[in-house]
Amino acid sequence: MTLLERIFGKSEDKSKSVAKDRLKLVLMHDRADIPAPMMEQMRQEIIAVIAKYVEINEADLKVDLERADTTVALVANIPIRRVRG
Amino acid sequence: MTLLERIFGKSEDKSKSVAKDRLKLVLMHDRADIPAPMMEQMRQEIIAVIAKYVEINEADLKVDLERADTTVALVANIPIRRVRG
Lengths: 85, 85
Hints:
Chains A, B: Belongs to the MinE family. Two copies of one chain form a homodimer. With 85 residues, chain A is of the alpha+beta class.
């Protein structure tokens, strides 16, 4: 299973899983020399930006750090309660 | 070609393309009811967060908005000059 399939799940999975309103954020770095704590700090600040625009269901927020050879992918599954504004 | 392959390019493409140091940001929304201007605003603020951690080569920054049935994917290819700090 490629890194992408692991990140986004096979397309058939999508139809089976109950379509909840969510935003998916992926931050992928090819050369993997951004230290993990920095990626984590970036992630938190990015989620804070997103939270200004959509109401996030923090309890169900899921974040994974995936590695494949030189690629590091930080994947956040962000369930949305509603779009603000 | 699936939305993902369009976003990340086939894995063989990656080996052929000169491996430049870059960050890839994807913001994917399943229900596509976040208005495009709001996605654009979010993108700019997210890139501003990233720019605090890495020096971005603004001239080569590439952003695409991809649509496939109910999914909207905002994809930013962010060439990095160096990681700060």
